[in-house]
C-alpha cells in the first residue's frame, strides 16, 4: 500500500456489483484496493468459536477474493481493531458504506477523526437501505414511530432513481493491480469452521410471487431465506426492492419493516438497552434461569415453541411467524425480560441484525414502537392450529411430542395469561 492507493473498506456489503461506496471509489480513483477487517472488538465478544456467521463471512470473502483476482487485483484481509489499524495507514483516501448501529457509528467517527488529522478523506455512502436516517420523516421533520404511516411515506417518496443500480463493473479497471494477498484461515482468526448449511445466494422469484399466501406456514418453503445475504450485503437491496415492487407488495413491506427498524435505531439508539416505551422498564420480570434454559433448549412442553427453538439451535434460522410465537411465549408466558431472548437470538441467528432483532423483540414484549399491545398474548395451541395444522413443522423438529419422552407444559396457558396481564397492568398503571 502506498499514498497513491485508495482503500475501499468492506463491511456489510460483501459484493462487487451494485455497491454504492465501491462504485464511487472506483469512479473517482485509480488503484483501489478492497480491504476487510475482522474486527476483534466484535469477535472477542462471541462465545462460540464455531460461530456460523464468521464462517459465512469468511466464505463470502473467499468468493470476493476469487472475483478480484480474476480482475488482476486482490483483497486485503486484516484482523484487529479497525481504529488501531487505520491509525497506521496512510492511503490516498478511504471509502466505505454507511453503518447505522451505535458501535459502528462510534468506530467510524474515531476512524474519520484519525484520518482527518492526517489529511486523508474518509468518504461514506448509503448502500444497505433505500432510505436512511431522516430521509423518510413526518412533515415536521420528526421520525415516524408507527410503521403504517412510515411505509406510506416510504412508498410515496420512492422514485426510479432510488432503485437504480450502481454500475461498478464499468470501472473495474481501476482496481489496484497486485499479486494475490495473504488470506487468513478461520483457525488463524481463532475460530473453527461451522457446518451449518447456508441459504443460497439465489433470489427465487416464484417464492416472492406467492409470499403473501405462504409466508406464515413454517412447514412450507414460503420465504426466500435471503435475510442473511441482506445482513452481510451479498445481495443488493435495490435489486430486491425492485423485485418487491414488481412481484409482491407483502414481500416489499418486509423490506420496508427492515428499514423502519434501522431508522428507529438511528434516531433512538437507547433502544439497544432500554424499552422504547420507558414505562415498560418498570415491569417486574420473573427471569427464572431454569425456565429460560428450557426455552433455549426447546423443552417447554409447547410443541410449536420447542420446534422453533430447535430449528434455531440446529440451523441458525427460525421462521418469522415462529419467531413471534417464541418471543411472545418467553416474555408473556414465562415473564422473562425481552433482553434475555434478544441476546439469545443475537447469539444464534445467522441473519442477526441489531435493529431488526431489537425491534422484533420489543414488538413481542409490547415495549417497542408500533408494538403488539401488552394484552395480546399468543396462544401457542391456536397458533399451531392456524399455521401448522398438520403438524408437519412440529413433527420435523419435535418428533417425540406425542410420546412420554416429551415434557409436560412448563406453565399453564390460562394461568400465564392472567399472570402477565396482572403484572403488566401493575407496572404500567
TrEMBL record:
Pfam families: DNA_photolyase (PF00875), FAD_binding_7 (PF03441). It comes from the Bacteria. FAD binds at residues 211, 223-227, 251, 254-261, 351-353. The record marks 285, 338, 361 as: Electron transfer via tryptophanyl radical. GO terms for molecular function: deoxyribodipyrimidine photo-lyase activity; DNA binding; FAD binding. Binds 1 FAD per subunit. GO terms for biological process: nucleobase-containing compound metabolic process; response to light stimulus; response to stress. Residues 4-130 form the Photolyase/cryptochrome alpha/beta domain. Keywords: Chromophore, FAD, Flavoprotein, Lyase. The keyword Endoplasmic reticulum does not apply. Belongs to the DNA photolyase family. This is Deoxyribodipyrimidine photo-lyase.
